[in-house]
Structure formats: C-alpha cells, structure tokens
Amino acid sequence: MKQGMCREGKTRVVVLVMVVLVVMVVVMVVVVVIVVVVVVVVMLVVVVEVVVVVIVVVVVVMVVVVLVVVVMVVVVVLVVVVVIVVVVVVVVVLV
C-alpha cells in the first residue's frame, strides 16, 4: 500500500511539475508576444508621429511660401499702382 501511495505521490509531483513548467512557458510566450506587440505599436506610433510632424512642417512651409508670394504680389501691385498714380499726377501737373 505504501509503495502504491508513494508512486501515486511521485506521479502527482511529476504531473504538478509538468503543469507548472507548461504554465511558465505559456506565460513567457504571452509576455514575449505582449512585449513584441507593444514595441511594434510604439514604433508605429513614433513613425506616425514623425509622418504627422513631417506633414505639419510641409503644410507650414507651404503656407509660409504662399503668404510670402501673396505679400510679394501685393507689394508689386501697390508699387505699380503708386507708379501709375505718380505718372498720372506728373502728367496732369505738367500738362
């Protein structure tokens, strides 16, 4: 009887150890998968942030360029108008 119980106890211990090892392996695999997913998500977020920053910079640069062009056009138009007015005034005064 004692030998049978002893064998049964050893079998239980072996099964318990195997279950614990399997659980540990599963937990390690899950942790590795979670870490990989987190790293990939963080990298994607960083890449997306970089892309968003690049897009924002490009948009800002385009807006600045458009503003500069508009200001230049306005200045040129003003200069042309002033020149035309001066020429008209001079012609009227002289004539």
Features:
membrane; transmembrane helix; single chain; 1 helix; 95 residues; mainly alpha
Description:
Keywords: Membrane, Transmembrane, Transmembrane helix. The mean pLDDT is 82. By secondary structure, the protein is mainly alpha-helical. The longest helix has 93 residues.
**Largest sheet geometry:** none
Number of helices: 1
Q: List the uncertain runs.
A: none
Share of residues in strands: under 5%
Distance between the termini: 138 Å
Which structural class fits the helix and strand makeup?
mainly alpha
Record the SSE blueprint.
Blueprint: H1 2-94
Would you kindly provide a brief summary of this structure?
It contains one helix and no strands. It has one helix at residues 2-94.
